[in-house]
Structures
1.
Amino acid sequence: MGDIEKTDRSQPLHRMFTAVPPRYDLINTLITWGFDRRWRRQAARECLAAQPGEVLDLCCGTGDLAINLARLGRDGMVVVGIDYSQPMLELANIKAMSSAGERQVSFLYGEAAALPFPQSSFDGAGISFAFRNLTYKNPLTRRCLAEVLRVLKPGSRFVVVETS
């Protein structure tokens, strides 16, 4: 991850997502007039429509989509959230312990442009309120999208929830 890690850490977005976690959920709720929770539940249902065995929450932030996936998914399903903000992941872990029930959710530190998974690892993936960060004026957009395609099994769903 060397070059990617250095690139992202020098960018304002990485600094912002490292500083904002205590207010991140409130900000999303205010920006969406409270619809963010409903949209994430619907996105989770769409991700789960094909009964996946392994699902990825890309740029998971504080883990809300991953937690919804775990709650609504079938027993034995694997849910993995990945984000490049360690403070966000710490909040995600805390929330998952109290919100995901018996279901297991794993949260990993990582970069969307260099996902640490083998090819065709996931039956589905979702991203909520972060797709714009991967695609808008991001010099690594093509690389990020290629990585998503690489880790998804053929025919899998990639569900995007976005406000922009």
Note: The beta strands are 54-58, 78-83, 105-109, 122-128, 152-161.
2.
Amino acid sequence: MANHKSALKRSRQSQVRRLRNKANKSTMKTAIKAVQAAIDENAPDKASEALKAAIPVIDGMASKGTLHKNTASRKVSRLTKRVNALASAKA
């Protein structure tokens, strides 16, 4: 356990940031699961709408530093690829 005043403050800050990041990641995972569920249902319109809602959430995690920007980009790319494949398969 920290003993110095500055170390105690850093400990408090770390805990607050950890909880904030955890909540943000949970929100992101929920948005991604909504896209995946729509893909599993073979519903291209629903998947497209879910993707449009998920992309800003994922990009927001990258801008806040919760995710690395390349990780966020990879997640968006993979989801987009799956949604586009579903849409082209239905056409």
Note: The domain at 5-90 is CATH 1.20.58.110 (Methane Monooxygenase Hydroxylase; Chain G, domain 1).
